[in-house]
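Record format v2
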Amino acid sequence: MKTDQLNPINGCTVYSHADHSHASLVHQTWARLQSLVEGDQVRISGQSLDIASVVAVARNGCSPELETTPEVLDRIQKSVDTLEEYLSKGYYAYGVNTGFGGSADSRTKDVLALQRSLLQHTQSGILVDIDKKSHGIANLDVGFHSMPASWVKGTMLVRCNSVVRGHSAVSLRVVELIINLLRNNCVPVIPLRGSVSASGDLLPLAYIGGAVEGSPDIFVCIQEGDTYKIISAKEALAHIGETPITLGPKEGLGLINGTAASASVSCLALYDANNLAIMTQVLTAMAVEALLGNAESFHPFIAEVRPHQGQIEVAKNIRGFLQGSKLATCLSSDDKDRTKSGLYQDRYAVRSASQWIGPQLEDLLLAHEQITTELNSTTDNPLIDIEKKDVYSCANFQAASITSATEKTRLAIQMLGKIMFGQCTELINPFLNNGLPANLAADDPSLSFTMKGVDVNMAAYMSELAFLANPVSSHVQSAEMHNQAVNSLALISSRYTMQAVEVARLMASCFLYVCCQALDLRVLHLEFLSKLKPAVLQVTQEVFGELLTPHVLDTAHSRVVDVIPGAWGSSTHLDATERYEHLVNTTLPVLTNAIASTTSSRNPSLTLAHIEAWKERMLETVSSAYTKHRATFFLIQSTPQYLGKASTVMYTFVRKDLGVPMHQGLVEHPRGCEAAEANTMDGRPKKTIGSWVSIIYESLRSGRMNDRIMACLND
Amino acid sequence: MPGKETKPNRLPHSSLVCAGWRRLLDHRLLPAPLVVDGEALGLVDVTAVARYGIEGALTSDETVLKRIEKSVDLLDEQLNQGETVYGVNTGYGGSADVRCSAYDMRTLQRALLQHLHCGVLPAPVGSGEPFSMSLKEEWVRAAILIRANSLARGHSAVRPQIVRSLLALLKHNITPLIPLRGSISASGDLSPLSYIAGALEGNPGIYCWVGPPHSRYLVPATEALASINLLPTVFGPKEGLGLVNGTAVSCAVATLTLHSIHNLLSLSQLLAAMNVEAKLGTSTSFAPFISAIRPHPGQAEVASTILSALAGSKLAEPLFEQHPTSTHGLFQDRYSLRTVPQWLGPFIEDLLLAHQQLSIELNSTTDNPLLDPEPGNIYHGGNFQAVSVTSAMEKSRLAAQAIGRMLFAQFTELLNPATNRGLPPSLCADDPSTSFTMKGLDVAMASYMSELSFLGNPVHNHVVSAEMGNQALNSLALISARYTDTAVDILSLMCATSLYAICQALDLRAMAKIFQDKLVAELRPAVISPVFKTLDAKSCYRVTRIVCLYIANEMPKTTTMDTKPRFEKIMDGVYGELVGDFAALKKDEGTDVDLQTLVEFSTNAAAFATTLFNSVREEYFVNGDATPLLGRASKQLYTFVRKDLRVPMHRGVADHPVSAPSVPGIPIVNGEGGGDEWRKKTVGHWVSVIHEAIKGGKIMDVVVGILEEGARTQEGLAGA
């Protein structure tokens, strides 16, 4: 719990978790990304690259700029000069006048040829036809065997930031050329596979090197508006008015011997995972409300007596999200029902959310530190020390920090997915969801299975996510003549972490859709029940008003009213008409007994016919009250009035901003009974359930939803 | 299955692959519609329809058609008698506790589809190609065919016209767009199949790929149906369920994947044989005796296939004798070569079992409930549980991992000068101090291998209890099949990379042999006789023999050196060999060789060898051909790569697409000029060309040719 300290070794700031909650970190990152998107510059200085900047350049089309202070420029030039001086003394430097890797037993004088030879043997990845064909598709993330453009852009940025630190002897003009490619949306086509991230991401980075060299057999994708054109690097350089560069003595090595590709992909994955971690907490709050769950699970006392930082934070966050909710119980201690019937505690999927998610936040925070440090590191070999004018052989390219970060992140995503899965299945299952209809169908469950498909999907996503959570790092092979007997596999781990993000986003989208539906149904039924009360009183009065004393009538009514919610809630698997009967049949004996037990003497005028009449009137009343209420509710949902802080934000976003409506059941099916049946309702199109979820998913993937998630964090 | 065969097939996998390939060729040469009758759908038929555009047609066999009709009638009868039938007048899965009235039965089928159209596809679905989020078209085509075949069996109460409608989609190349994820393959592949049903229903919210092969685009199902004058289907009481409750999608992905891995397993055995030659290994590891005394059929088949592939090789040691040029010290080959039959054998057996499991699944009714038209019963069961497919796919993925592991081990040994028996490091043809030809591939192979090992993890142990606990067991067959497909994709990258490196290694062997032969022939007249003027002809011959033997021994030990220093070092080393001989010479014959002459010899010999080596190499780069040395299989695969695919031997740095600048800093002019500019490509480019031939199946013409030839020879031997 100390304040920031300086690391005695490198002078960098050390973050201690206590002072930097996960939520504030995520919020800061988001705010920084906003400011970059709105026009702030991403500056490349070698010191200050952060995750938001990588996201901004990779995904949001922001153009980076080189920090051209004398200090930075001087450092770059000095590293080149230092190496030159070193070589002029006739010394050997690895990869400059020796062979590479397991072949470093050879020496050469032809230093320029050596750099070409380096790129030659590392440009060895496999691309398929579609990777090299210009296509008019809007989504670049589809190439079969090449990396998505966003990953490559991030890689270019990270590598530039690393080499301008002045330990790599990569000259200014090379850095400027790469930045110019980035600024012109010229993205080299890089094979997806082939890196073990040990001597860095040699193969992927070699394709960026090839672009700098203006190779006619390296391809570059140029984005112009919505169209993409793939041309050779040679043509691409001409296109942006650059000439190919002959790489100097260590420039090829300096470009490719590094962890930039792993760092880039891990950055993007971590950014998404962090947002998902917040979203999972928001969704938990929504699930608590939809289940009429207990806010006590998130009481500060609980976390105080088991003071893990992550747990403390999650409890605080979720309790904050629940503020203002009329659905969650025990938000204050006055509000606690100490003689509660039914399930006394919530099930683990909601009750243990803080204990479950907490450790994940701690892992994500450490991953954040590891990756941020890596972004501002020299991950090269050999390293140039411009002060002491020396060259050190080392292994700063070993990307195990990134592997460590992404393995943790992927496991964390799996844990987030698992708790969403637990909560989601609980909401859909009528035996667990505390009185919501089976499959969250708004109409009759015999003919409507609304969320059942989503329920199965969630299981499929969960199983795949669990599979993906397997460690990657345990599959290291001794590589490259046993020179690389340990290799980090950071890029593979990052790629599968991205894939886990993808699957978890599908889960989060489905679950948000489910939560909104559950909240609507919860409010629909709560309101119905509260409307039912006076109606029942009226019926009872009409039938028995003249026969019973006000006291007896009152007692009978209150006993009936007491059992109504339970009776209604236990028939959720039935169609509406059967539910009315179930309700009336359950309340009838209660009424009868109440009257019998409170009426001291026999009342001759009270007959079974009255009971029969009450039943008839009740059936009519319940039926008309429900039908009327539901019809009104379908038109305008009063749900927001009941919701807590976060739920309000998310619910409104889904229903209003995205226009994803409450699902009314079978009537929503785009293919009606008759082919001619209208394909619209309530002035909006009918869609498949998948299409509605897809709208939510798109907003999540594009980052639009994230703005709203961050709004939940605002006090 | 034809039962004529009397003697057991000793090459079951190889014959399966060959027969399959022949059948596929037949389909492609005579593209007649495939008859769908529910009984005889083969794995290759599925491939033909899915990948090569063959159509399917419902049989005209009256018995089959009648059986289908009968199942529909039976259902009607039972319903008329007021029977309750799952999914027809009840709810679904965990919600089967609700009943619906006869009036609503058609509505129920729509409700079924509605809740299953729940997968995520990027919206809005437009002309983009969101195939990263959707199933591949070939998978969907296969699924349609398999479902049609299953329905034709007449246990599902789905009318024949529905089967015909499904096949019409295939005929007109209309492919519904289906989300990639969302099936646990337990009550079958419900959600994915619901998109096929939705397309028949003419649901405007379901999209289909249409248009010619290279410019496909998406239209709503309504439009797709209209374009082929097909009326939207209104499903009868069980027809929606009959379409979606089945394993067709898992089975489709599994079938196509198994087809690919079968082929790669065959190829990998030939690659192993080529590896034996490239490393001057021995045929003995594949001797019939070895597998006869440990008679696992898979092991025997692999040994037999490789031994026959090696026939005629001048590089591999034949059975029972040591190679005359055997100069290496390692007595036995390393495990990556020596244990190939034991390593691959069990996976041959696994893939054969997987084949059997899928063959049965293809011609099964995977529905629930099931109708038995003859006695007129309806059974409720769990035939949709796709564990047979999962079992086939988990095995296949592990097999892919094991095949990849073998290729990886062979590959790294081939590139490593410490283990490759005298080939240059990273198989560079020029000077190793500035050329690293295959080193990048070495790292890439490790990367492929690691990913493949990761994918080798089981999927099946990640089952979660699903759908209100009703589906506590669910097969995950589709997830398993998808990841097997990814694994097989990676394996194909590894096969391509291996083949590229092996061809290079074989060329380097051939080149070295030419050099060695020329050296033996020319060293005496060119250097020895002129330098050792005092020696008589006989002594000159003896000295030549000593020197050449020494060089032959030293060449493999000096592969990491550049040409010039390499020969200088070798020729200096000859001193030691010659001094003793000259001493004896002086004693016996009084002939004196002075020190100066020895130094002169060394200098001249080194210069001569360097020049000869360079000129042999230059010549080989232009006209080189390794085939005279190669065994039966190598010869054909090598020729395929070098001649048919025009993938040339890699010459080293000279082949880098970015040429050397004359003066540092001067802009480079790339890829223009001379006649051999076409050879200047990235290493990755050439491997990609081979990969294309493997992925597209072109290489199988060669592989099958080799295997069939081998089988004929074997028969000949057995007959003799």
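The beta strands of chain B are 34-36, 56-58, 175-176, 207-210, 217-220, 370-372, 377-379.
Confidence is low (pLDDT under 50) at residues 124-131, 662-673 of chain B.
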